[in-house]
Amino acid sequence: MQKALNTRGSLRALYETMALIRAVETSLLDLFSKGKLRGTVHTGIGQEGIAAGAVAALDNERDIICSNHRGHGHYLAYCGDSRGLIAEIMGLSEGVCKGVGGSQHLHKRNFYSNGILGGMAPVSVGMAMAEKTRKSGAIVVQFAGDGALAEGAFYEAFNLAALWKLPYMLVVEDNGYAQSTPKALEQSGTLADRPRPFGIPVVEVDGNDVEAVYEAAESLAGRIRGGEGPGVLYCTTYRLAPHSKGDDIRAKEEIADAWTREPLARARAKLNPDVSSAIDQAIATHARDIIETLTK
Amino acid sequence: MTQHAPEASTTYLQSLNRGLHAAMAADPRVHFAGEDVLDPYGGAFKVAAGLSKAYPDRVHTTPISECMITGLASGMALRGLKPVIEIMFGDFMTLTFDQILNHAVKFGTMYGSSLDVPMLIRTPMGGRRGYGPTHSQSIEKHFFGIPGLKIISPSHVHNAGEMLASAIATETQPILFIEYKNLYPLALVNGDDVLSVESVTDGPYPTRILRNFEAGEPDIVLIGYGGVAPVMLEVAEKLAEEEINVSIVLPAVISPLDVAPLAREVTRARRAIVVEEGTQGFDWGAEVAARLHETLFGKLDRPIRRLASKPAIIPTSRDGEAAALIGAADIEAAVFEELA
Amino acid sequence: MIHIVRMPGVNANEDTATLTRWTVADGSSVQKGQYICEIETTKSAVEVEAEVDGFLVQLTPPGGAHRVGVPLAVIKQSLSDDHAALLAGEASASQETERRWTKKAFIVARRLGIDIEALAKSKPGTTLTEADVLAAQAPGAGTQPTQSSPSEVKAVASAPAATAAPRLIAAGGQHFERVLLIGGASGAGALAVEAIMRTSHQRPAGIIDANPQTHGQIIHGAPVLGDRTSIPALWANGQFDGAVILFTDDIDDRAELFSSLLGEGIRMTNVIDPSVQIRNDVRMGVGNAIMANGFIANGVEIGNNNFLASHNVIEHHSKVGDHNAFGPRCTASGKVMIGSYIRFGMHIGIEPYLSIGDRCIIASGTILTGSIAANTIVKSRSTNEFRKR
Q1: CB-based contact C156:C234 (threshold 8 Å)
Q2: B-chain residues within 8 Å CB-CB of C161?
Q3: Is A128 near chain B, with CB under 8 Å?
Q4: Cα(B246)–Cα(B236) distance, rounded to whole angstroms?
Q5: pTM beyond cutoff 0.95
Q6: What is the pLDDT of residues B281-298, one digit of tens each?
């Protein structure tokens, strides 16, 4: 398949985004253990492929992103503002939301997040209604985990979005766990099938394959932008770090096995090692510099 | 903007309907959404009658999804529109609660900068129509005191429609606009042979005071809002014959509470009763009474009295409903007790 | 003998009740204590029992609302007893008592301790109003004071807001003492209005001020009623219950006015801000005004017509004569003897056991360490030489 004409969708660019997310999330865990963060922190280590792939496929000028409690990756993929994010989570006035919102309540330009699971579904659909009304050509992309799909708000939102053919795209990040509870104890049936009876197409993709996510998102976003109504990008992945901190009861073997399939390793395998290690180094320096200035 | 006096021979319902038409005519960003709102039905209580005919692209009938409708309003408001939504019965407001508390009122300030969320939720509260336990309640007390949420509830002594249009046009944060079902068929009141009416605050949501006396001071002040207004008016008219001077104070913005205009009138009588149709306990009257006691410490002859409906379900039967809801006889009896 | 069963008064706040059901059939025999019907008010439902043995004759079907006292049934010793004539008389009587007073008249009468039944009997055929009740309780009612001349009465009739006093009574919690405040519409009078409003037993009847420009003004809710020439007529008309003098600029005038008012039979009263602490065994005359935060200790005796501004302390067993004026924050330590007609400035200290003679003037800030003879003006900080300890 011919691609990479769009530099944002090139593997190199996608890898850069994933590496930035990984570095920032890792730094945040480190800052947390040093007591430098306010409140708790939900990291997306292992899920970087979805944020990087899906966001790269959007129109960064027009499109709107509604994120959730685990939204650092979405935010960084959207605007790359690692300093504003880290400062925000440290509760500093230099934070993107002046230390008011914190980890779960981020807003910059067309990016909005809220920590109430499922709650942003009706809001996202409302935004999609506004964009359709104003004929802005924008689509609204909501990120949600598998656990959140147990919330009823989604099904009211699916119904209305499909009924009114709104430019609404839901990206599901199925990491198999709702906090500490495995999916099997929480969800009946098949999650990916949930939107289909509403007439909403569901595209399933390996969320750890960043290129696959990008391609699927680009194609789905195009259809939605074209007026065909909402769509769902259903991505399977695995969260390598705990839900927040200190609440991981998963088997060590399971986590170790997941590390062999994680998205950065898979991308690195396809990239020139010199390129990937140069990116890794540059980003590590970038993250270290930010944290040094913020913790001075 | 200062309110005009209510137009005579206009019902509360007609006034609100005109207010909606005026708001939509004034600003193309105004959209209206709710259940069963399309013509010819025009909403369960016909407040939206004629809207969809006049503005077919901006009036949206929705599924029975109160949570979704409320989120819809937040989303539209955050993206440059001015949505007005109708929740068919006030009782269904429970289904909107998360969208109001954790979403609509948070967006304005939780991102560290100020975002406009110009949305208005209209809903009718109240009983006296025989709709029974889940369609007759006045549950606004569960929404009082929510930071960032302004609750407006006009009585039929207010220019309700102008107030609604003004809120839609000028407010930049979420508004809960509470109507009362029992007021819909009533003509707006601007005083009569017995009762004089005056606005004691300026601006679009004036506090109105009715008095059943011309000279002298009130013996008692009744404070209330919304659907208890006609009940209080009935009591004041009756007590005029008994030479008991009654002032009825009707604020339009009921949360947050501006206690100053209430306190000014209560100072004159030194006794007051707060009346509401919601259930007793942890109620609007508790806030009003506490604030008046703080403001008028040492200047009251009696503690502020609270009257509300029974802390129980509202039966469907005529007698059962009348016994559950606060009524004119309860108010009258309380007046005599307070004056004794 | 025929016994009439009347609608009982169940709830003090309701004049009517509904007869919901007869529990005994019309014409049947009943025994004393037997339930004969049920009645209901908005607040309660009660059963009515027969008070005598006999035969029950129902006068009204169930379901109707009836005024308290209206006959519902009769209990006859014999079914042949004729009760029509009795009931005919009853009907006209109940018609007459239909509406004998307004609720407000009833409430005011109760507050004033007036027997409204007796008052109603004295005015048959009318509905008593609040004004009737107030007229009945006025001091002049029935026995007009002899000293009120027609011209004085006329002055009152034209006095502004002359009706304010009765209204304040009606708005109060009980029978308030209505106090006439003499002097200082722009000063001490206003202060006293606030003090009075804070008490549980007094309300201002109005203010008297020499300045005609103040007449008709409302000071903190109290009307300025006129100058001192209008006082006798106000008293004669029953518009206040007691007076107090509040001006302090002319002590002699203050004393003369006090005496002349007493001479005219006008009652002088004390106005004491509720924040003043008054301890045990304090004795006090009349016409005294004590403003906020004063402290009057055990055993103090205060005469008549004194004005104590805020924060005055009269320590234990001190004596204060008549017609004195104290500025703010004067302190008399224990067992001080203060004469009469004395003007104190502000912030004055008086050491224990000293005495101060009549008609002295003590300047502000003075600390008295020795006694002062009558007619002395004290300007220095101290009147005694210092001595070595």
Answers
A1: yes
A2: none
A3: yes
A4: 6
A5: no
A6: 999 999 999 999 999 987
